[in-house]
Amino acid sequence: MMTLRVRSTLRHLDVFLILGALLAVAAIFKASTFYNLSNLFAILEMSAVLGIATLGEALVLIVRGVDISVGAMMGLAGTLSACLLPDFGLGVAILVPLAVCAVLGLANGLLIEKGRIPPLVATIGMMWVINGLANAISEGRLIPIDNKAFQQIALGSVLDVVPLFFVGLLIVGGVAYYVRSDYPIGRYVYAIGGDEGAAFYSAIPVGRIRIAIYGVAGFLYGIAGLLMASYVRSGMPSVGRGYEFKAITAAVLGGIALSGGRGNIFKAIVGAVILIVLYGVITAFAVSPYIQGIIQGCILVGAVYYASRYY
Q: At the topology level of CATH, where does 33-310 sit?
């Protein structure tokens, strides 16, 4: 009985133990490099960007889907914003990219649900379409962002300690967790991923909810893209390259099941923080950046193996 209780506790705290272990390694071996204010500020900002993208991917995975267009939508959002800022101002440069990304997310959902195209194929196709659109808009070049208000999104902080980015992540994550816990739609999402047939015969609108989830995911990718554009002070179609795999890795690391229907949204966000902290530790140890891909691949495979055995 005690062993089962311990194992259950470890399953609930696993991501927090991993995060604590990484922070402890940094404190023991690279405290001066890792634990300085500018580095911690950057880690929180990048955690917010990846965390919001991971939240979108996690929702898709829960309804037994997958989305490979994450990075492309992030690049498009930043590129659109950079193009709109000089002539239309901050409001339009934020709202239009978010609306476009939400519509593209809905298009993903429609291709999958109505077109009966497998999620992997549909979202890879959309990734290429969105990349092409972003490159056509920017003519394949970096577009500098000089708008001070937009730059302030990345520079701003609460009490000069917590970046606005991270506050935004906590708000978005809190809203998602509240909807999951207190509204029927949250339970429907898990029901669809757990047993689509049973959900259908329970009068749950499976198709509409899955399409809506892809739309919400697109909206979240748009937010992540705008945050990244503010951080790098430019719009670049390639700025989100690779984020689809980082988001999947972070979600699975946080316990989101690739088979759908299971996983904790909050722990998925913690998974994103773990990845960013890991990259920070790797950088502090001056490990070659080329090794990061190897480590990320090993983490993804290990996380899937762990989840399949213990969740």
A: ABC transporter involved in vitamin B12 uptake, BtuC (1.10.3470)
* Domain limits, the chain: 33-310
Task: Count other C-beta atoms under 10 Å from residue 272's C-beta.
Answer: 30
Question: Under a CB-based contact definition with an 8 Å cutoff, are residues 56 and 220 in contact?
Answer: yes
The CA angle 201-185-53, to the nearest 5 degrees, is: 120
The per-residue pLDDT for 4 is 53
- Tens of pLDDT, residues 231-268: 999 999 989 988 998 999 899 888 888 888 888 888 89
Contacts by 162-168 with C-beta closer than 8 Å and gap 24+?
162/44, 163/41, 163/44, 163/45, 163/48, 165/44, 165/45, 165/48, 165/49, 165/227, 165/231, 166/44, 166/45, 166/47, 166/48, 168/48, 168/52, 168/223, 168/227
The residue-averaged pLDDT of 68-73 equals: 95
pTM: 0.92
Judged by phi (left if over 0) then psi (alpha if -120 to 50, else beta), residue 60 lies in alpha
Q: How far apart are CA 105 and CA 91, in angstroms?
A: 21
Percentage of the chain exceeding pLDDT 70: 94
